[in-house]
Amino acid sequence: MTLRLILTRHAKSAWDDPLADDHDRKLNDRGTRAATAIGAWLARQGYVPRQVISSSATRTRETWALIAEQLEAPPEASFTRRLYHAPALRMLSVLQEATAPCVLMLGHNPGIADFAEQILAEPVKDGAYFQYPTCATAVVDFTASSWAQVQTGTGELVDFIVPRRLTG
After folding, report:
1. Which domains does the chain possess?
2. Which of 21, 28, 61, 84 is the most exposed place for a label (fewest CB within 10 A)?
3. Which residues are 15's β-sheet partners?
4. How far apart are CA 18 and CA 141, in angstroms?
5. Residue 149 DSSP SS3
6. Beta-strand pair 77-80/156-161
7. Which helix (H) or strand (E) covers residue 74, if one does?
8. Tens of each residue's pLDDT in the chain, 168 residues
9. Are 107 and 10 in contact (CB under 8 A)?
């Protein structure tokens, strides 16, 4: 059985309120455009998740809402503090609890960049993949009967995009 992970870093957030708690930062205009573009790209490519697991931060919630607007019949998302600035191993642990065959996971750097690199069986030649800029999205397939069986170093990269390649 093939399981599919859509791994997305939150879109660009605003830094205009120095008193705002990091967890509560909202998207800026560039982030709004990027999340919308990524959602449209996912829809065009037919990469539609059936389960969404996201950090509970405001910027990840807003990123998902904008992506979901572009998808036909998007699933409800579950938001967890466990993914807020989570390291790669915690991200894997959360993913291993997933139940749908296609899962979108939303998180933060530096953990998501580390996770994106560690999850693949083969290295990627795209430098942006290792930086995992805001709203970067990878589509990774695994041959496993359940997410609980997925381990690092077992994924196959199907696709990868950053918003700049979509919006110019």
Report:
1. 2-16+34-167 (3.40.50.1240)
2. 21
3. none
4. 40
5. helix
6. unpaired
7. none
8. 899 999 999 999 998 877 778 899 999 999 999 999 999 999 999 999 999 999 999 999 999 999 999 999 999 999 999 999 999 999 999 999 999 999 999 999 999 999 999 999 999 999 899 899 999 999 999 999 999 999 999 999 999 999 999 976
9. yes
Distance CA 77, CA 106 (A): 10
What burial letters (b/e) apply to 78-110, b meaning 16+ CB within 10 Å? ebeeebbbbebebbbebbeebeeebbbbbbbbe
Q: Tell me how crowded residue 58 is: count the other CB atoms within 10 A of its CB.
A: 18
CA atoms within 13 A on the CB side of 28: 8
Contact in structure between 5 and 148 (CB atoms under 8 Å): no
